[in-house]
Structure formats: structure tokens, C-alpha cells
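User: C-alpha cells for this one?
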Amino acid sequence: MKFRRVIIIDIASLGLGATADADRFNSTGADTLGHLDQHFHSTLKLPTLTQLGLGNIRADHPVKSVPAVDHPWGFFGSLINRVQDNTPNAGIREMLDIDMHCRIIGVLNELIRRNFSVTVISPLENYLIDQDWAKQIQASDDDMAYSQLMVQLKTLEQGLIYFQPPVIRRDAYQHQMRGYKANLEVMDKQLGILFEKLDPTDMVIVTSSFANDPTFDQQYTREKLPLLIYSPAYQNGKSIGDNHYAGDIGKTIIDIFKRHSNTKFAHSLLPLIG
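Assistant:
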């Protein structure tokens, strides 16, 4: 399948449970989604993410309000950050930089160099600011971010949109549980609206560049991160497995836009879908 547009939805802060190395980051027992579900007595409403397969990722450790579904829309799995730095900037960098043995390729600037459009809709983040070739839209609140996402989608013919709603991550950082739940539910509704606007040649990658369990005293927790891939071109999703790396997203994007890179540190997800 030839994709013309890719939209990365980075739900920055959403984690799915502690990684094997969580103790090195004071994150033993971290579980952003699970603890949110418990805190609100399983009243979390995420129908779009549920139908995509978010609950299927956690089939062996289910979240009551986000159950596994029999016929998921998306290709579902999980990923971890390889880098030994648990900050948001490090997670985004790992996702959007490709180590080519002798040099680092920045995915966003590489696409622009090859005449593809790239738009970044996000709060200020050092790594994203440095992508000076990309069209930058600073989003101060989620409403503005969602509005701009729809505007940019209307005009994008071929290329990439990276989208990170700012308030969700802010709520997690500030331990605002009620706001976190409410804004995550709004994001889920907006995701459903986005899907109605897509063409068969579009791909949406829903993930998170880092985790931040708001029930933990510290900021930033070391957790498994969601990986959900959706396109109207496919009627049925399936598991694509766990233990992928954030860099696999960047490798996938590079391969979609016809620059087949050779790197041992990341693997394209394209062979796993379809």
C-alpha cells in the first residue's frame, strides 16, 4: 500500500505499565493507564482508542474501562524507549532521529529535503524547535491544537503531520487527575473525528513519546508505550507485537516516503501491517 500522508498522534505522557528496567528510573509499579482507570473506578471513556485496540495491548493485564475488542480497527502493539534518558525531549528525539551508523538523520528535515511537506503542531519542545525547516504551529491549548490539525489536514497533499496535544501532558505533569481524564476523553473524541476525514492512502500512528504516571510523585515514569496504527485501507487490525522501539516509527516514516535506510537500530513496521 502506498501512503501519501502520515499523521503521528503523540499522546505524550500515556504509559501502559512499567518496563523491565523501570527500577533504574524509580518507576517500579508505574502504570499510567491502569492507575487512571483505578482512580476513577473504571469510568474512563475512550471508545475510539478502545476500538483501535488499546485494550488488546493489555489483554494479559486488562484495564476494565478499556477492554480488548474482538475486531480492532488498528494494528496494535507496544514500544519502549531505548535511550537511557527518561525526559520528553529524549523520547521525541529517539522517535524522529535515525542512526545510520556514520551519522544521524533527522526524519522531519530529511522529508523536507526530499520535497515532502512536514507540519509540527505541539507545545514548545527543544528538539521540535530545532526542526527549523518544518512548518511549526505552537499550540497553547488542546482546542487550538485540534483545530489546527483539521486545517492542516485539508491542505496537506503528501507528507507528515506530527501532533502533540499540550494540555494532556501538562495535566500529567501537574498530577491533575481529573483534568487528565477529561482531556484524554476529549482527545479520543477528536481522534474519531479525524478518522472520518481520512483517505485510504492515509496512515495514523497513535503513540506516546514518554510516560508520566500522575499518581507518582516524580515526573516521567519508565513505561511501555502504546503503538496503534490505523488506515482506512485496512478493514481489520491485528497484533504487531510488543518490544518495538520508538525509533521504529521514524524508520517506518522514512520507508513510506521512499528512502529505504539501512540501520540496525530500528526496523520498519510496514511489513507487519496489511
